[in-house]
Amino acid sequence: EKPSKPIIIRQVDSTPDSMLLSWTAGYNGNLDISEYIIQIKRQNDESDLILWTDAQTYSVAVSSVPYRVVNLHPGTQYMVRVKAKNRIGFSDFSHVFVFSTKEK
């Protein structure tokens, strides 16, 4: 069966232009997780509606967790969500977590 969504995303480290992210996997569906998909976008305070169409999307190997997202802006809040993939398919996305890069 498909995996469950990752449970908790943590910001392990932050610089002005990157953040190191880790997460806790959910149930794997009795199959090995083959990859994770991370979506990250700048937090938009203007609307309650979150559109992920303009999000940066990364495919992450299981062996690459924790994963460093680069080319970010200093002192900026970002929304992050993650989903898992196994041989059957993708989980739903995790809850959205908000993290900030450091000021320059």
From TrEMBL:
- PROSITE patterns of this UniProt entry? FN3
All residue ranges annotated as the Fibronectin type-III domain in the record: 2-104
Q: Which Gene3D superfamilies match?
A: Immunoglobulins
Q: Which domain of life is it from?
A: Eukaryota
CDD domains in the cross-refs:
FN3 (cd00063)
Q: What is this protein called?
A: Fibronectin type-III domain-containing protein
Give the species this sequence originates from: Clytia hemisphaerica
